[in-house]
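As a warm-up, study this chain.
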Amino acid sequence: MDTVVRLSKDRLVATYYSAYSTASGIAVSLGDLAVGALFDTGVRWLPWAGLAVTGLGCAALVTRLHQAGHLSARPAPLSG
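Now compare it with the structure written out below.
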């Protein structure tokens, strides 16, 4: 959840959380429909291959966000 705050650059955080929740809900629904359709094909390896490709794609995108500096650690605030 900290990633949402970082990508919003501490502006309109609640709006970003709402957009994230909406997009996540839609993605989960579409993903469930797609995987269910792949299971219905009867080809045993096809759903698992699709899930593996999705996972690898997500890992690649997170790596790209990190390399672009969007996920770099912030310095701790000074107390005192």
